[in-house]
Design brief:
5 helices, globular, 6-stranded antiparallel barrel, alpha+beta, Pnp Oxidase, Chain A
Length: 169
């Protein structure tokens, strides 16, 4: 099977359509800690970043403060063919804790209904912050942009990497 030329712009377009991913941080014993997160993507005119809303006293937040190395995996399930493997995009990079009033983080969450709902949720006495993922240039992808028959024929050929353009980093 000939390799397709899939661009970062295509990947970004697909990632903007989703709102849920699995964030992996490193705990205080050096072990991975994964948790599902609602995310939003920075404005198109800004540097490419991913934002997740959380409390300042959660384990994931404390993990990022100790060790900023993280990954975020976004799955693209096949809704009609349940036995087929999900396509996915994995971003690796460094995370930082940014305040709740961060304009890019708030903009990112305003772009989806679930994001707006999360912004308007009363957090009680807990301080709300964003985890901002600043991705590495290489993005790991499996299956996105390929049809199910293409994936079935040659599943080892549908894993690839795209590079985030330098001006977006």
């Amino acid at each position: 099977m000939a390799k397709k030329e899939i661009t970062f712009e295509y990947i970004e377009e697909q990632v903007r359509k989703k709102t849920y991913g699995v964030l992996t941080t490193i705990d205080k014993k050096g072990r991975p800690h994964s948790t599902g997160m609602i995310y939003g993507v920075s404005p198109p005119a800004s540097k490419f970043s991913l934002y997740m809303l959380t409390g300042d006293n959660y384990v994931k937040t404390k993990n990022v403060q100790r060790n900023p190395l993280v990954s975020l995996v976004i799955n693209f399930p096949h809704h009609w063919i349940r036995f087929a493997p999900d396509s996915y995009v994995m971003f690796r990079g460094t995370a930082e804790i940014v305040p709740y009033d961060n304009s890019d983080g708030r903009w990112a969450f305003q772009q989806s209904r679930i994001g707006r709902m999360n912004l308007s949720t009363d957090s009680g006495e807990q301080k709300v912050v964003f985890i901002k993922l600043n991705p590495e240039p290489k993005v790991f992808v499996f299956g996105l942009g390929y049809g199910i028959l293409e994936m079935r024929k040659q599943h080892t050929e549908v894993g690839y990497k795209v590079t985030i353009p330098e001006e977006r980093l």
